[in-house]
Design goal:
By secondary structure, the chain is mostly beta strands. It has one helix and 14 strands; from the N terminus they run ββαββββββββββββ.
Length: about 170
């Protein structure tokens, strides 16, 4: 939990601390933490070395593609896929999205092929995560190198063929 203090002048002084009920995510960049206008906006505007931290459990009907050198810190919260497109993965570190970290999160991916995918990237970490679902697998490492999965629980769908798939990938 972050402590944020805001002070306004011109005859009015207000101090407020998080958590704010409508905040979905925070972004830490260069040592400064700001409130993102939405989780989707935080991901879309993410830059290298940003840390996107969830402020609460969230549903997403869109797939999430994380850019290079970004950390998604679930902060103990859950991210649930609610979309209808079953192809690919809910959360992906794709070609040239090297060194992506996903941690401290529960990922619910019950209506899509894979919960998390590392695709043709170099370096990636899934840490202290629970991945529930994935019609085929909970995690796919597809043409990626140097991927670490640590202290995580993988629970793919009952009909899935494996917890983790290692594939050749190309791209």
């Amino acid at each position: 939990v972050f402590a944020v203090e805001a002070t306004f002048t011109n005859n009015v002084e207000v101090t407020e601390s998080e958590p704010w009920p409508n905040v979905e995510a925070y972004v830490t960049r260069g040592g400064f933490t700001t409130v993102a206008s939405s989780f989707a906006d935080a991901v879309t505007n993410a830059q290298a070395v940003d840390v996107i931290t969830l402020a609460k459990d969230l549903d997403s009907n869109a797939k999430i593609n994380l850019p290079a050198d970004v950390t998604l810190d679930g902060n103990g919260h859950a991210l649930t896929y609610t979309g209808t497109d079953k192809e690919q993965a809910f959360i992906t570190a794709s070609t040239n999205a090297d060194n992506v970290t996903v941690k401290n999160i529960t990922i619910n991916a019950n209506n899509i092929k894979h919960g998390v995918q590392f695709y043709c990237c170099d370096g990636g970490t899934l840490e202290n995560a629970t991945v529930n679902g994935g019609i085929y697998t909970a995690v796919i490492v597809n043409g990626a190198t140097d991927v670490t999965i640590a202290d995580s629980t993988l629970k793919p769908a009952a009909s899935a063929y494996t917890n983790i798939e290692y594939a050749m990938g190309s791209g």
